[in-house]
Amino acid sequence: MQDQPSKKNATAVNIRIVPSARDVARSAARLFTDAAIEAINTRGQFHVALAGGSTPKLLYSMLATDEYNIHWPKVRIYFGDERCVPPDHTDSNYRMACKALLNHVKICPGRIYRIPGEPDPAKAAYAYDATLRKNFTQPDGVLDLVLLGMGDDGHTASLFPHSTALSVTDRWCVANHVESQQVWRVTMTYPILVSARKIAFLVAGSNKADAVNRVLTGEEPIETLPARGILTAADRCTWLLDQASAASLPKKNK
Ligand code: 6PG
Predict the structure, then answer these.
(1) Ligand 1 pocket member 203 (CB < 6 A)
(2) Cβ–Cβ under 8 Å, residues 248 and 210
C-alpha cells in the first residue's frame, strides 16, 4: 500500500496560484521547458509522462509553438494513464496529446509510448509495464517529469477513490476498474509517479476548489483522496492552481 502522506509532506508542497487557467498553462509550459533543458543537458534525454483530461490541452498547444525552446528529438513521451478506447477515439488521451502537441513537433514516433488501452486493459497494462521497465533501469523508474491533473473527487491519473490500483506497489502500470464510471482505465501507479524528479499538478476551475483544499490541507486517507498519495513526493511537487481552484485554501497556503 502507498504510504499515507504526513502533515510535513503537505507543508513541503510548492503551491503556485495564478489568475487563470491560461496562466496555469503558461506556468506549466515554463516548468516543462526548464525540466526538459535540465534533463537533456544532464542526461541526454527527457522522459516525461503527460496528463490526460482537458486541463493540459492549453499547455500542450503552447508547447507546440516556437515560443518554447524544446529539443524534441531528445524527448520521450509517456502517458500517466489512458482510457480503454482506440487511439482515434474522442476520449483518448493519446489522441488529445497528438492533436494539441505531438503532431506538430519534430518528435520521433518511436519515442511516443502510447498505452494500447484497447481492447484488453490487463494486457495493455502488462505491455506498458514492460515498456517502462525497458526504458528505466532504476528500482522505481524515475521519470524526469510527471504532469498530473486532478478530478473533483480527488483522483489523479486513473487512480480513483477506493480502486484496486491504489494498493499496487510491485507494478508501474495496471488496469483499474472505475466503479463510479463503470469503465476500465490503464494507469501508472504510485511507485513510478512519486519517484519522478519533478511532478506538476495542473488544476483549474472552481469545481476543483473543495478537492484542492482537502488534498493540500486535510488528512483524509489516499483511499478517499488518491491525489494525496503523491504528497509523499511533496519536495519535488508543484501545484499550479488558478485562483478559482485555490479559492477554498486557507490564507496561509496562498
Ligand atoms: C484522465 C486524466 C485524469 C484527469 C482528471 C482531471 O484521463 O481523465 O488523467 O486524471 O487529469 O480527471 O481532468 P480535467 O483536466 O478534464 O478536469
Answers:
(1) no
(2) yes
Assess contact for 218 and 250: CB atoms under 8 A.
no
What is the distance in A from the centroid of ligand 1 to the CA of 42? 31
CB-based contact 166:229 (threshold 8 Å):
yes
Q: Tell me the CA–centroid distance for residue 133 and ligand 1, in Å.
A: 25
Task: Please indicate, yes or no, whether the overall pTM of this predicted structure exceeds 0.70.
Answer: yes
DSSP 8-state assignment for residue 104: G
**150-169 pLDDT tens trace:** 999 999 999 999 999 999 99
Q: What is the pLDDT of residues 78-125, one digit of tens each?
A: 999 999 999 999 999 999 999 999 999 999 999 999 999 888 999 999
- Asked if residues 76 and 111 have their Cβ atoms less than 8 Å apart, the reply is yes
Within the chain, strands assigned E span 14-18, 46-50, 75-79, 81-83, 145-148, 173-178, 183-188, 198-203, 237-242
List, for residues 35-48, the tens digit of each pLDDT value. 999 999 999 999 99
- By the 8 A CB rule, do 179 and 172 touch? no
Query: Residue 233: helix, strand or coil by DSSP?
Result: helix
